Amino acid sequence: MNSKVIVVHNLKGGVAKTTTVIQMATALVKFHNKKVLVIDCDPQFNTTFTCGVDTNEIRTLWDIFEYYTGQEDAEEVTMDDIIVPTKDGFDLVPGDLELVGADDDYMGVSDNIKTLNKALRDMKKEYDYIIIDTPPSLSLMVKNAYFASPNSQIICPTTLDVYGYQGLDSLQKRLDHFAKKYRMTENHPDFKITGILRTIVESNTKNDQTYSEGIEYFANENNIYCFKEIIHKTTQVKRAQNEMQNLFDYKADSTAAMDYKYFVKELLDLEKKLDKDVR
Length: 279
What we know:
By secondary structure, the protein is of the alpha/beta class. Helix content is 43%, strand content 12%. It has an eight-stranded mixed β-sheet, sandwiched between helices. The protein is globular, with a radius of gyration of 18 Å.
């Protein structure tokens, strides 16, 4: 087994990154019998909180970075030591507020953008999928997510508005910059958005229809896949979050649950096509 690594990222906040990570992971487990590891690289650690994990008494991703970057007094720790099973069926590497200082704390560490890659080396043989939640930035944690695997897929959730469109454009430009900067780096990632997922969509509004077409045009111009399945705006998402449940356990036949179920099916179909093209 060699894990497929999926990085869920956008420079814009409020685009349902965390919701997408949790529902994607749950759907892969529930409907496709996949073994999934979720890594919470976001210092806000919303994924960790939503999974009902209390980080006060356990080790987190911050402990991994402290040890692997050789910080003074850091205790030896591996991914196996910090992984937590969740009620949703996937395993979790918990996030931590301490990660907010990663850029300053590990600034002088050689190869600091590959810390997560090193820590995951053995884990890639144990999981079908490793899904990484990220903050809306280009911080050290985000770069570590990108470098987690040379074959990482970048899924970009976006809202249908000017800020969502701008976030996509800005992210693609930065990825192009990374590609040039790290071109000679051994096993560097592809640095390309794999797919765009339209979220929090109100299909009956002219604004969303207009921006949806704009995002499809952007995807086509940049040779990026735009998922046909969209995630509609519903109250079910917040209700499920308030109950600390995934959408499928909260209300399996809800619009939001079905949206994510069919999105994951489309993602798997896309992967088959990409794998075939590589061969």
